[in-house]
Write a structure and sequence with these properties.
This protein has 83 residues and is an alpha+beta fold. It has 3 helices and 5 strands.
């Protein structure tokens, strides 16, 4: 799965894009976030507070309880405001 990190999430994780093989136990976006937190201090910091980021699966906004089955891409980014 391709994982994209935008804005301060990219800065904290140290990467903008990566292709990862998901562990079999990771079936939702929330489980992916929990797994990503274990990958080091930058990831733990970036994903410490779920209210501070949003995600999109295959370019569709989604909640963290969204399933990952069949998805090819997930993006994490700060909340967006319009003006």
């Amino acid at each position: 799965m391709r994982v994209l990190y935008f804005a301060w999430l990219r800065e904290k994780t140290g990467t903008g894009t990566e292709d990862i093989a998901l562990p079999a136990s990771v079936t939702t976006a929330a489980e992916l976030v929990a797994w990503l937190r274990t990958r080091g201090p930058g990831f733990a910091d970036a994903f410490a507070t779920p209210a501070l980021f949003r995600c999109a699966i295959d370019q569709e906004f989604c909640a963290l309880d969204a399933p990952l089955a069949g998805a090819t891409e997930i993006a994490f980014f700060p909340p967006v405001t319009g003006g």
